[in-house]
Amino acid sequence: MSTFSKIFLLNGAGGRHYSAAAQTQLREILGSQLAGIKEAGTFKAERIITSSQSTQITVQGSDQRILNFCANNYLGLANNPEIVEYSRKLLEKYGAGLSSVRFICGTQDIHKQLERKIAQFHGREDTILYASCFDANAGIFEAILTPEDAVFSDELNHASIIDGIRLCKAKKQRYKHRDLADLERQLRESDGRLKLIATDGVFSMDGNIAPLARIVDLAKKYNALVFVDECHATGFFGATGRGTEEYDNVMGEVDIINSTLGKALGGASGGYTTGPSELISFLRQKSRPYLFSNTLPPAVVAVGLKVMDMLLASSELTQRVQSNTQHFRTAMTKAGFTIAGENHPICPVMLGDARLASNFADQMLTRGIYVIGFSYPVVPQGKARIRVQISAAHTEAEIDRAIDAFIEVGRSLKVIQ
Ligand code: PLP
User: Taking every annotated instance into account, which residue ranges of this chain make up the domain Aminotransferase class I/classII large (predicted)?
Assistant: First the structure.
């Protein structure tokens, strides 16, 4: 028994403590499930990074710098010196945190500034910040939908949308992935008061895009609202990084956008909902992850503020990640690989077999390239792949090094000729 367990058993917590037998039982149940996960080959080990997040990183156990192609650091801002400096400044001015939820004493002028800037970036009326986009997704459906309403969700939506919808009392309907005929049939048959269509803008396992313009058309036809999760689009997708609605030429026509500050927008953390002012005011009153969770710390708010200023001033980084993506996708396709998805910096290199994908990723690492193999149950059986993520911060030489390594390993494993 660990020292911690002994102390815990002696002292208890607030007079209550686990009985030794109950804890033994817990350990046995979880231990055998963990063994099962390991046996199935789906145990997720974590590689320990010893540098800042960047295109070149170091990991524990090695001095070698490796090229990183698996972060959501699409704009390469996660260790941007200007952003880090601004974050340090606001840390000094505003302190480490607020020790409060927003409505008690957790709202600073910088939280309001960030909400305004995000609304301005998306061309929306108002924005509400959360600790994460997971929270934003967990907090919206339950707050606004009642049993009289209906929600229509793409079957491959992100786990946080699925969980958020589980919490609400509306009629829950799932439509086949990006299948507009199925969505239309369900909308036509629905007698929901409010009808809300919920979709990822970009689906992160395949790098494919929701058919947003046609979803918006269906929403108009059947008087429905459209909700889009833009975590893998905000800041870098569409000509000026406004996301899927810009990419699909329906700027301003989506009713509700949820997104994250934890990927392209500086990579720290935080999430938000942006949309009509009544919706945002209502969420401040009713959304549970907002009402009952601590406010975002100033140093994190600073990252969002600085990134928003950068993106409002210029789309240069957005264009760079797009041209890097084009370069990688074109060269890899020419070399004989199949790259799934559409024009997006998520570039899944399709391999099929799970062992092949994991072996391929291991061999890439020995060549100094960090990529990850994904296999069942994260993706369907027989559709194992290596998911490469391109960043604006990758240089052409770094991308070429990755392509060369892919070709070398691909030939040796007989994936390409
Ligand atoms: N939605 C999508 C599509 C995501 O990919 C993620 C992150 O993995 C989230 C929501 C959650 O975002 P956050 O990390 O801000 O909680």
Answer: 66-406
Max Cα–Cα distance, the chain, nearest Å = 68
What is the three-class DSSP state of 352?
A: strand
204 a catalytic residue = yes
User: Do 295 and 340 share a domain, yes or no?
Assistant: no
pLDDT tens for each residue of 261-306:
999 999 999 999 999 999 999 999 999 999 999 999 999 999 999 9
> 356: which 2 tokens?
């092949």
State the residue range of the domain holding 243. 81-313
What's the pTM? 0.94
- For residue 10, tell me if it sits in a domain: no
* Same domain (yes/no): 305, 319: no
Say which CATH number the domain at 115 has: 3.40.640.10
Ligand 1 pocket residues where CB is under 6 Å: 132-134, 137, 158, 160, 200, 204, 229, 231-232, 260, 262, 271
90 Cα–ligand 1 center, Å: 25
Whether residue 277 lies in the annotated active site: no
Q: Distance (Å, rounded) from C-alpha 417 to C-alpha 239?
A: 36
* Ligand 1 centroid, distance to 133 Cα (angstroms): 5
Number of structural domains (the chain) is 2
**Local structure of 231: helix, strand or coil:** coil
Q: Is residue 11 part of a domain?
A: no
Q: Please tell me which residue in 117, 232, 306, 344 is annotated as part of the active site.
A: 232
How do residues 40-57 score in pLDDT, each as one tens digit?
A: 878 888 999 999 999 999
Identify whether 219 is part of a domain.
Answer: yes
